[in-house]
Amino acid sequence: MNNIFPLLAIETSDSLCGACIYFDDDKYFSSRLMLKHSHAEKLFNVIESTLNLASISQSEIKAVAVSSGPGSFTGLRIGMSAAKGIAQSLSIPIIPVPTFEALAYQISTILPDKSLFIISNKVGRDELYFAKFQIMGNNYIFKEELKIVPLVELKTLINEVPAFGNVFGFDTENAAKMKNLSAPDPEFIAKWAAKFGSDKAVSEIDFVEPNYVKDFIVKEKKND
Questions:
Q1: According to the 3-state scheme, what is the secondary structure of 86-117?
Q2: Which of 19, 30, 55, 204 is deepest in the core (most CB within 10 A)?
Q3: How many CB atoms are located within 10 Å of the residue 60 CB?
Q4: Cβ distance 144 to 132 under 8 Å?
Q5: Tens digit of pLDDT for each residue in 119-166?
Q6: What is the pLDDT of residue 180?
Q7: Could you give the residue range(s) of every CATH 3.30.420.200 domain in the chain?
Q8: Where does 7-99+184-207 sit in CATH, by number?
Q9: Which candidate, 63, 146, 62, places its Cα nearest to that of 103?
């Protein structure tokens, strides 16, 4: 494929609102803001700050990588909409980055080789996104594919395996056993795209949608 660098990466799947301008592993610039419900208001400010750090203009970006889910329905929609707007205005492709895989790639730089670990984030009151991975060299493999599991199974699933995710304030009994790392840093959205996304760039951006895993349902408010 054509050169995708410098690459803009966007992460909005959870509370973290972040962007990265990535040239290569030795040259990238990242900005992030940790503030719930801030994505709609702050994302373009974060992107602009990152462009300024990298000393480039938006017109120099060659591709946009965006965290595609699972995660917050609202956060994913905001990130994807921003990515589509930028990609369309510049006539550049989008690289959808699976959020849990980018986080697994980040965790693979932290834990020893061959380590097993899980990632589990809340979906709703009684359900969790869940996947199990193993580190293999400088990479990771799925041991259990991404799925939705009942909250009551979390204790059994964690067992003695290192666990990452956000269930704080949701499952206080098991939250203490988990590392509160629930979304990848924006540079790992970029690094995943650079390493694994060369054949996943999409020019027909109208067809790119977040991977919610669970169906997004708008609940109607009943009138009394």
A1: HHHHHCCCEEEEEHHHHHHHHHCCCCCCCCEE
A2: 19
A3: 14
A4: yes
A5: 999 888 889 999 999 999 889 999 999 999 998 888 888 877 888 998
A6: 85
A7: 101-179
A8: 3.30.420.40
A9: 146
